[in-house]
Each structure stands twice: as structure tokens, then as C-alpha cells.
Amino acid sequence: MNMDVICLERSQIDEASTILCHAFDDDPMLRYITVETGEARADIIKCFCKSILRYSQSYNHTYVTSKDLKGVVAWIPPGYFPINFFHLLQAGLYALPFKLGWSGFKRWVSLFALNSHHKHDLPQPHWYLLILGVAPAYRGQGIGSSLLQPILKQADRDGFPCYLEAFTEAAVHFYQKHGFEILRIDELPGNNLSFWTMKRSPCQR
């Protein structure tokens, strides 16, 4: 299903982060760092998602469905990885350690190992898919695919690869349908959280 996709407005960040909160309720990565349940867990996930959207929105490559907000995608453009951690804290992530507690904070810090894999796996300039989520009620309708298209097309035109991390086999299969290939299958040190790093080379037309 094709649909119009537009840039996220700052006024939509709260609503968009709520969508991502529902979309990632069962995400293994977020389940790994959060032991809380119910409203406390939802508050942590929303804090994380809102910070990501505030950070990425400054690059003008965060997109939503144009009518009702059913899905959200955020990209970091070539030349802007690694992520500026100070700017991410300014975007609201400073509150996350206080919400997680000490044990959750340590698990969250362990995720930074993904950055070293990222730098090793794709050192050249590239598009980085930071987050993509669709409201559970609208999954399977092609919304995620539509949200990917603006940057996949731009990456093809400009000759840049794309990169992402995935934490479920279902996500891996979804991205493979859009031309991504697996670079690495691994687990984070000290735990059994599996992850895949994936790359999409620009299509030659």
C-alpha cells in the first residue's frame, strides 16, 4: 500500500513517541534494559523514543504517515555518525538513567558496544536507520515499507549505502525484502541479547 509520507513536525513528537512506545512494547532490546512493568515501563520507553525523535528531527529526515500518525521512521544522514551523545542528552535522554535505576542503567550502557560494531562494519559515509515503528493495529498494511521509501530512493540517487541494527528475525526478514543484507550476527557481551547489523547498497539505475 502506497501512502503519502511527510517530515515530522516538532508539534507531533509527543504523539509520534507514543506510537513508537506501542510499536516497541515487545522489542527485545527495550525488554533487556527495562525490568519495570506497566506504566513505569511505558514511561521509560516513551522517554527513550521521544529523545530519539527530538535528536533526529533536527536533521530533517524523520518521517510520518501524512494523515493519521500510524508509523514513524528516523534517519541520520551521511556524515553525522557517530551520534553526538551530548546532543542526545540535551534531547531528553539525560532523564533515562534516573528512570532505569542502576541495574537498568548498566544494561543500557552495554548497548554502546553496538557503536563499535557500527564503525567497523560500515566506516564510509552512509544513511543510518535509527528507528522505524508502526502502531500495532496497522502492521501488515505496507506502512513500514512506505516510510522507508523516501530515503532509500535518495540513497540510490546519491550513491550512499544504508545501515541498521535489528533485534528480531522478523525485522531482519522485513529489511531483507528492501535490499538489506546481513553484515553481522552477534550477541552483546555478558548477555544473550542477539542482534544483526545490516547494510543496503545503493541500487544502480
UniProtKB/TrEMBL annotation:
Name this protein carries in UniProt: Acetyltransferase
Gene Ontology MF term list: acyltransferase activity, transferring groups other than amino-acyl groups
Keywords on record: Transferase
Entry annotated with the keyword Signal: no
One Pfam match: Acetyltransf_1
Domain N-acetyltransferase stretches: 59-203
Membrane-spanning intervals of the chain: none
